[in-house]
Design a protein that fits this description.
The complex is a heterodimer of chains A (393) and B (261). With 393 residues, chain A is of the alpha/beta class. Chain A has 16 helices and 14 strands. Chain A has helices at 24-38, 41-55, 65-71, 89-102, 116-128, 138-143, 145-153, 168-181, 199-207, 209-222, 238-244, 273-276, 314-321, 332-346, 352-358, 384-392; strands spanning 10-11, 14-15, 61-63, 74-79, 107-112, 131-137, 157-161, 186-189, 229-233, 254-262, 278-282, 285-289, 325-331, 371-376. In chain B, helix 2 (31-41) packs parallel to helix 4 (77-88), helix 2 packs parallel to helix 12 (245-260) and helix 5 packs across helix 6 (109-119). Classes of the chains: A alpha/beta (393), B alpha/beta (261).
Chain lengths: 393, 261
């Protein structure tokens, strides 16, 4: 594979593990063992069984007929929204909780933005019978109340991150600090392809079940095991990494990553990291991030709590800088509109994050007969209040 | 000067070294030069001058708070270097830059290290620059400059790694007192003392300084029994939360020195 991570955890010039010494032992343990554990027959069997019986995989690949008619092309939706807990996030948390168990850890921590990863983590922690603490920005706790309630019902403790912008970036800082303070019993389940090596590679591998299924489903439904194009939204980039994974080396597949433009790229209220960002270190990884001239991290903005992250996973920084992926942006209003459109045309309410991927459709020139897959990363139940507010405004 | 001032200090004084951490721009924008002068007067041996960062991963609530106040007060890198250069004309104790790697990377490593030399910085403490990444990616650049580089060890650092860190460090080794972010209070237990003893018994080329969670004169005293000295950070920052912070700062140092002797 051309886009694989190297020994020190770099994809080209991006990645690595810029960690305080206090985390070295835990990170080194993971670096040394993750592949070995993930590749055992026993682990694979447990992982696949849970994905099938518990998560409900394979998730359908659905030919969206009316949406296709509208854009005069063939659009398929990879239905990650139908997974247990409502998004792709659970693919990764199932994998990591098995890893945590294998390493003998008894306490689980996680960060969350929209609450999807927090819910997915609280769910697997309940399943495994482990204590769970989820860090969530104070601001996100307010705007994602239903997910906060779900985490609590699942037995997790939700701790507000009150520093900085009080959103995902700060929740991640708090989770990392928690890990520093609990080096022995705690396992940190990161929710995206971000953070120090080996997390970006590990999370991408757990999410790669998306593209693996896509190949089989496309072969069965279209007679060809790859599409012409895959569209996915990126905040940190885990659903995109999973949707691209098995197609990274197939240059016939165009990969389109959609970033959150917020109120507009030049508005000062945006999360379009690849456009506004420069090289720097965030959450222990060298990547593209939004920062000022002194390297202070700039607070991002998006209507979607899952996309307002000031960085992107190092794999994505590499894919973008090498020209392998194409980046489009969708602003708040475009995403909401695309969300309504899918709801009315297909009867599917997408998460605001996934609505950003759908909002790219009008910006693409389709050739006749082309096949496009949109990774529908999550369902929109959690976003109803935001959708309705927009309609009323 | 650079490493010379550090070497001279450690040559002349081998025990009870006292270092104080300050956050530049806290509690007010131009506090740093005043505080450094005062601390030099009070007999503090060297200064850890923190450049505030938006996302300080290794720091607990106290230093996080001082950092965000400092940034709001208008502290930035060019002002930081200006204030260091200004106070360098009046004091001769070693001053170390403490900051996160992104601040250096964003400025451009060469340019940043040049600025350190020009301003009169003697060394750097970069908590999120790991020895492996330094060795593989950045060592050649850092070696061009006459600046000490201080790496951290923690209770979970293996003996083999401590040797590597001793190889790579110039100036001293920063011995993190416990597995925690900065500013965690509570006394030293048996496991701390075991760890300190182990470090003390190792044949290291660099002096050792214990830091993180040194909040009381007692802990400072204990730390000095096992290392060449100690760094006080969060407890000092807390003492600055006062209208007349120069007075409370001075009282703080006096108290530590008095009880520790």
């Amino acid at each position: 594979m051309k886009y694989e991570v190297d020994q020190l955890g770099f994809y080209g010039r991006y990645g690595g593990a810029f960690i305080p010494e206090l985390l070295h032992k835990n990170i080194a343990e993971l670096q040394e063992q993750y592949l070995q554990i993930m590749n055992t027959q026993d682990f694979k069997r447990q992982f696949n069984r849970l994905l099938c019986d518990y998560v409900g995989r394979p998730s359908p690949l659905y030919f969206a007929k009316r949406l296709s008619e509208k854009f005069q092309t063939k659009i398929y939706l990879k239905r990650e929204d139908l997974n247990h807990t409502g998004s792709h996030k659970i693919n990764n948390t199932i994998g990591q909780i098995l890893l945590a168990k294998h390493l003998g850890k008894t306490r689980i921590i996680a960060e969350t933005g929209a609450g999807q990863h927090g819910v997915a983590t609280a769910t697997v922690a309940a399943l495994a019978g482990l204590e769970c603490v989820v860090y969530m920005g104070e601001k996100d706790i307010e705007r994602q109340a239903p997910n906060v309630a779900r985490m609590k019902m699942l037995g997790a403790t939700v701790k507000p991150a009150t520093s900085g912008s009080k959103t995902l970036k700060d929740a991640t800082n708090e989770a990392i600090r928690d890990w520093i303070n609990h080096p022995d019993d705690t396992y940190y389940i990161i929710g995206s392809v971000v953070g120090p090596h080996p997390y970006p590679d590990m999370v991408a591998r757990f999410q790669s079940v998306i593209s693996e299924e896509m190949m089989q489903q496309l072969a069965a439904q279209t007679g060809r095991d790859y599409p012409d194009r895959i569209i996915a939204c990126i905040g940190g980039g885990s659903n995109a990494a999973g949707a691209y994974y098995h197609f990274l080396d197939n240059d016939k597949v165009e990969l389109v990553s959609v970033e959150a433009g917020g109120l507009g790229i030049d508005s000062g209220h945006s999360a379009a990291t690849s456009v506004l960002g420069t090289d720097g270190v965030i959450h222990a990884s060298l990547t593209k991030l939004m920062q000022d001239k002194d390297g202070q991290i700039i607070e991002p903005y998006s209507i979607s709590a899952g996309l307002d992250y000031p960085g992107i996973g190092p794999l994505h920084a590499h894919l973008i800088s090498s020209g392998r992926t194409k980046v489009l942006t969708a602003n708040d209003d475009e995403a909401v509109k695309a969300g309504y459109e899918l709801t009315r045309l297909e009867g599917i309410i997408p998460a605001l994050e996934s609505a950003h991927a759908l909002a790219a459709l009008p910006k693409i020139k389709f050739k006749p007969g082309e096949i496009t897959v949109v990774n529908l990363s999550g369902r929109g139940d959690k976003d109803l209040a935001t959708y309705l507010k927009y309609l009323n405004d | 000067m650079g490493t010379q001032r550090l070497q001279q200090l450690f040559r002349n004084k081998k025990e009870n070294l006292l270092s104080i951490y300050i956050t530049a721009g806290y509690p007010e924008k131009d506090a740093m030069p005043k505080l450094i002068k005062l601390l030099a007067d009070k007999g503090v041996d060297f200064i850890e001058a923190g450049m505030p960062y938006s996302d300080p991963l290794a720091d607990g609530p106290t230093i996080q708070h001082s950092s965000s106040v400092a940034l709001k007060n208008g502290m930035n890198l060019s002002l930081y270097f200006k204030q260091i250069a200004q106070v360098r004309l009046e004091v001769n104790l070693p001053i170390l830059f403490m900051g996160y790697f992104n601040q250096i990377l964003k400025t451009d490593i060469d340019k940043f290290l040049q600025q350190c030399e020009i301003a009169g910085i003697d060394g750097l403490i970069i908590p999120d620059l790991s020895p492996e990444i330094y060795q593989n990616r950045y060592q050649d650049i850092f070696k061009k400059y006459d600046l000490g580089l201080v790496f951290l060890i923690s209770p979970t650092t293996s003996n083999k790694r401590i040797q590597l860190i001793d190889e790579l460090s110039s100036g001293f080794i920063y011995v993190v007192s416990s597995s925690a972010t900065t500013g965690k209070t509570g006394g030293f237990g048996q496991e701390h003392l075991q760890y300190f003893k182990k470090i003390k018994a190792m044949p290291l080329k660099n002096p050792t300084i214990i830091g993180f969670g040194i909040d009381l004169a007692d802990k400072y005293k204990t730390a000095c029994r096992y290392a060449n000295g100690a760094i006080i950070g969060s407890a000092f920052i807390k003492a600055l939360n006062h209208e007349n912070y120069l007075k409370t700062a001075s009282d703080f140092v006096k108290r530590i020195k008095k009880t520790a002797l």
